[in-house]
Predict the structure of Beta sliding clamp.
Amino acid sequence: MKATVTKKVLSEGLSLLERVVPSRSSNPLLTSLKIEASSQGLSLSGTNLEMDLSSFAPAEVQEPQSLVVPAHLLSQIVRTLGGELVELELVGDELAVRSGGSEFKIQTGDVTAFPELNFPDQIDATVDAADLARALGSVRYAASSEAFQAVFRGVKLEKRDQGARVVASDGYRVALHDFALEGEVRELIMPARSVDELVRMLRDGEAKLSYGEGQLSVTTERVKMNLKLLDGEFPDYERVIPSETKLQVKLASATLKESVGRVAVLADKNANNRVEFLVSEGQLQLNAEGDYGRAHDTLSVEQNGTEPAISLAFNAKYVQDALGPIEGEAEMLFAESTKPAIFRPAAGGGYMAVLVALRV
Amino acid sequence: MKATVTKKVLSEGLSLLERVVPSRSSNPLLTSLKIEASSQGLSLSGTNLEMDLSSFAPAEVQEPQSLVVPAHLLSQIVRTLGGELVELELVGDELAVRSGGSEFKIQTGDVTAFPELNFPDQIDATVDAADLARALGSVRYAASSEAFQAVFRGVKLEKRDQGARVVASDGYRVALHDFALEGEVRELIMPARSVDELVRMLRDGEAKLSYGEGQLSVTTERVKMNLKLLDGEFPDYERVIPSETKLQVKLASATLKESVGRVAVLADKNANNRVEFLVSEGQLQLNAEGDYGRAHDTLSVEQNGTEPAISLAFNAKYVQDALGPIEGEAEMLFAESTKPAIFRPAAGGGYMAVLVALRV
């Protein structure tokens, strides 16, 4: 194998692989990536067993051939190269990497022992890549990193009348985002950690979805990905969304986020970072109390609804997370002090968070 | 006590204190800072027992009084405040912090139990604060963070014909920097960790030094600091600086740093990150070899001296550290393959690093 490729193209591809391929493993092959040189260029692929990734780097190839090398090492080397062009050549069982006045010779691995990664050609649905990234990115926080039940560590995709919805929940809160999608939608649950990587890989352009046995494949102009899916029954989250609310409040999302951050400094970390919300007469009062003292903040809000006042408490961290994806005006919708509350952008846009209230 | 101060001034002062005062301690008083309100403003002071710090914040004060509050908590609160002015008031044993629509009430501590911090008025020497910061900042890396002997974890100040010198060594390398200073110079050793904080506190203007019993005090326009000094005999580092060199090399510091970083990717971490330097015929060749392969790089250099060639090896990390403070052209001076080598800016400026060569 002999190939010439620009440093920029090669290091971009490698940096994507580096995000997925683990840097340490009891099986060294799993820390490797496979380079498949064809007449069009180099296909770089690797896996962390939860997610397979393939990236294509256009290159001038003289002798098509496949090989396996340590992923992070190659990425690190290519990043430090001084020249603009990189020459790759398989010499015996070593990959020579040459650029400018530098030459590296890296031991290659057993290409036949590398796991077979198959990326399907079939397309079941298409979606704007940036829309999908925004939707996934704005609900991902609500998935748990610790929950015993696997589904709480995932993000669910489901069908809606107008396209699709992604939703995540850790049992104390729900975040969901509706978005447009062309084609078939299948119910499935993606692991949140794979979702993080998927969000990073998605840019502009179109993402093509393909549903396989226990796996979702996503193809963009730059990359192909297979995500292993989670098994299990996602909780009936719609049950906790209040269908009727009695008091609505509007204010700038950033103002509320800052205020919650401020009073949360004194909130009791051992009592769920409890912050009390009191809405009355066009004012939102926030109170927190902990070992070191008390905090109080007052904000002007646009208040609507049939109830004149409401008082309830939330985990400050959860309120800040819920407000995270909301730019501009935020709307809070309250039913009762003991019922979950809705946080969403006043201007719409498909995102909604539902927070369980802390006990009074 | 009642005081009004701008958020900017107060939070700048608190953020300095926050760097020194520990956030956790078995003695809660040590995580506190003392506020002394006088007619001119607020003096904020705290200690980590190795370093005392005092910062002054001009303020409008109505009832001068002293109090003690958790340092990190107050700093965090003031940082999140929405208003431009902050009102502080001691109400019973609570400090009320008010700004915009926010009010915080923080428990205060026992002011009589807080350690007495004394900052001397006497001035023994003056130095340009930026010069001192540059000198300390460029040698600090050579101090050890682990060495059993305390002096290897410090930076020494000593007298030179033209001013002063700071020097650090971990036994494998030496870094020194000469700078101008007016007044008396005493030999003393500052703990490297206090040096880090001192460098961060120094800005433009003048730094006034005062030598005390086992302590160095540094006063600038913004802050007063006492540094507890280290006891012990600093090694005779001048012994390892080669007095005569036979081969000199000049090249851009950044070029060499990049090249060393490049070949070091394959250097053996278990063999001191060994990188071999071979100078001959106006070329510097770098070689490294490890478990994963071999790296080779060639650089053009300006070569001088009586020897036609030299070959020796260094710890790649140490070479990069030594080059860190060198901007523009770097000069390397070699005596023999087994002797230490000198790294310094070709343009002078007071900095020099000496590296022990690894065995062949």
